[in-house]
Please model this.
Amino acid sequence: METHITSSAKQPHAKYGTRDLLRLIMTHAHPKKGLFVIGILLSFVATICSLGITLMLKEFIDAFNHGTSGQLLLRLGAVIVVQLFASVASSFLLSYTGVDAVSTLRSALWQHIVDLPIPYFDHNRTGELSSRVVNDTSTIFELISSQFSNAINGIISIVGSLTLMLLLNFRLTIIILIVVPLMAVIIVPMGQVLARISKAIQKETANLNSAAVQMIGQNRLVKAMVAEKALKKQGKDQVDRIKGFSVRQIKLISVLNPVLNIMLLAAIFIIIVYGGILVQTNALTIGSLVAFLMYAVQMISPLSSVTGLVTALQQTVGATERIDNILDSPEEDKRLSGETLSTIDTVDFDHVDFGYESDKPVLKDIDLTIHRGERIALIGESGSGKTTLVSLLEAYYTPTRGELDVNGETMASYTIPSIRNQIGYVSQEVDLMPGTIRDNLLLGSTEPVSDEQLSALLTQVGLAGLAS
Ligand SMILES: Nc1ncnc2c1ncn2[C@@H]1O[C@H](COP(=O)(O)OP(=O)(O)OP(=O)(O)O)[C@@H](O)[C@H]1O
Ligand SMILES: [Mg+2]
Model:
């Protein structure tokens, strides 16, 4: 078994990009592509309808002097209904695709982590792994279910409004086109800073998660060492680091939004002043001016969601890399094609060497034969390797030299589940899974066990009082 696993966090993969995100989603999240495409199409329809509604309003206003047309109102009503239906349906479909894909990805991660070999858990912190399953998948969820569709709608809205504005009045559009790049000059760099901050927040939140898991799990140790003070400080420092970044984030957002609003107002002001002049000289109708104003808003407001997508993609690439690292780590080889071990008669350690790291041997030249029915006690100082020896028997690790035989055959010839099924292992650490005592007693059993069978078993091992 290949046991050398490098810590993933320390190796930056410059090659990671949006393409990897797409590959991860396609291979592990199995998104419902049909629903997604329908959602995007409906959202396209909704955006086109809103652009159309503005155009009809223009007609409506311009027709005001000549009496309103009932037919126009009817058309307007119909388009509003279609727009409403399309946006409700697309919003549902896109969010549903996101929920569904992320659930699939989360399950895949969970299944994979259960099957990772023991050395993997030696090299990766519990809190970090759990943060992958919970937080990193949420980042991907946000991207699929909202940011992506917002940006697509944004692009349609920007291109559509721009085209219609150009058709309505060329010169007025050019003026707006001078204002927009000015806004981009502000949005883009601030967006990049925001992306960096939110990446830092993500990272520090994962650290908090990991530290909390340890603090809670090791609380006995904390108390025994009277380390409460140090741990409280550690927790506060960690929380303060997140707060620091979050405060910077809200400062930036607080500035960004009003600045954008002012620029939007400036654009509206320019349109009204210049457009007003055009209306007076009969170069533009009032309806066109109103439509123009609405298009300007429809073009400028989605700008932030389009640039937001870039930020979101950057964040998600980080999450993708971390999830990929887990999914790429090979699962434990259960040797399912091997023989089934149905009873243990002898266990033979034949000149076995083993070390967790290649340069630090723990077991050296262990030569030991154990026969069925024997009672063996391993006695040694703490750290001498007693638990390690049992870990080899459980096939958590494989010897680096020598051979471990069961019933005269190398242990590697038996399937892993059949070996572990033959070994009753009570660890020195009390390991319980959440659930009832019954759940814990029956952990891993695949057949239903009646209360009678259970209490008979408990009587056999001298724990009869437990079941009642
Ligand atoms: N997962 C691991 N990764 C790296 N080194 C380990 C790991 N588990 C144990 N070791 C190291 O291997 C050596 C043997 O540890 P082991 O737990 O087998 O000792 P032990 O005899 O069971 O001790 P104790 O009496 O305290 O239970 C120790 O030096 C320990 O630090
Ligand atoms: Mg031990």
Summary: Residues 386-387, 428 surround magnesium ion (ligand 2) (CB under 6 Å). DSSP finds 14 helices and four strands in the chain. The chain has a mean pLDDT of 87. Strands lie at 346-354, 363-371, 401-406, 409-410.
